[in-house]
Write a structure and sequence with these properties.
The protein is α+β, with helices and mostly antiparallel strands. It has one domain: SH3 type barrels. About 40% of the residues lie in helices and about 25% in strands. The chain is built from 2 helices and 5 strands; from the N terminus they run H-H-E-E-E-E-E. Strand 3 and strand 4 form a beta hairpin.
């Protein structure tokens, strides 16, 4: 790596490069990278989180749900933060509302 750097001599011309002339281009480059990162990563994640929250707020008794662990069942009771899911006859399991992955309304 050092031999590659030594291969190219420093710029000549008697004037040293001015860092202030490079500052606007550098700021434009960094701001464009930040904007691309925001629109490609952060914004879609916020949109999915908002849609999931709306999905959880709409869960009601009788809906068929699938949890994040893959358990399929029917909602038998809804509380503020938990839901009771019937997965078989006389078998009910209490889950946190956040663990619901998808809902199929009845």
């Amino acid at each position: 790596m050092l031999s590659l750097i030594l291969m190219f001599p420093p710029p000549s011309g008697g004037t040293s490069p001015d860092g202030a002339n490079q500052l606007p281009g550098l700021l434009i480059m960094f701001s464009s990278v930040i904007l691309i990162f925001y629109f490609m990563m952060i914004r879609p994640q916020q949109k999915r989180a908002k849609e999931h929250k709306a999905l959880l707020d709409a869960v009601k008794k009788g809906d068929k749900v699938v949890t994040t662990s893959g358990i399929h069942g029917t909602v038998s009771e809804v509380d503020e933060t938990t839901i009771l899911i019937q997965i078989a006859d006389n078998t009910r399991v209490k889950f946190d509302k956040a663990s619901v992955a998808s809902v199929d309304a009845k």
